[in-house]
Model the fold of this input.
Amino acid sequence: MHKIAIPQSVVDRVIARRGREHIHDDLDPSRTALVVVDMQNAFMLPGVAHALCLEAQEIVPNINRLAQAVRETGGAVVWIQTAYTDETRKSWSVYYDISKPAQNAKRAEALARGSKGYQLWETLDARPDDLYVEKNRFSAFIQDSSNLAEVLRAKNIDTILVTGTVTNVCCESTARDAMMCNFKTVMVSDGNAAACDEDHNASLAGFYLTFGDVMSTDMLIGCLRNNAKKGLAAAE
Done:
């Protein structure tokens, strides 16, 4: 598991700007979605992965705990899977042109629909009633990548909790764009995984300063359950 280390100077700047450390701790559980990014064999399984992040295996229990808490408090769980397509190879040619041909071939194989690599990691608590969205860019929100924004708005979601791999690429890209699509966005500090602590913490700090909130799994589960109780009490 990553050693989380967001500099105190970053926290101080956040508080100075927003007035408190966690601006989204008042989330409405019924309007909250857990968005799980790219927890696929293509990023997690040795021998299959084209971009292996072994740390992603370590965050599976936290993702499962959050998914259960979100379901119990009336929210939605969304599993995001990246897919390689020939169309993407053309429309996103800049990305492929800066990678070696062998790496591109490995990526195409690992992320082909129906392949072992495309599948979600086997111990994730993904359920039939959850939502499943396919993307073809790093960010799930960028134009032409997926219909995630539409799926969330159809469910009246206004807050998303971002987990998955890798922190500083697909997760951060998705989280930043979510905020710019007008969703309240939280990156889960111990529910994302990167290649190293340095990458992970730099990504969280950069996101936290400007784009949204950063909270741990335990903190978010507490917010979900406490706010759900407050909502029930208010309704009564």
About this structure: The chain has one domain: 8-235.
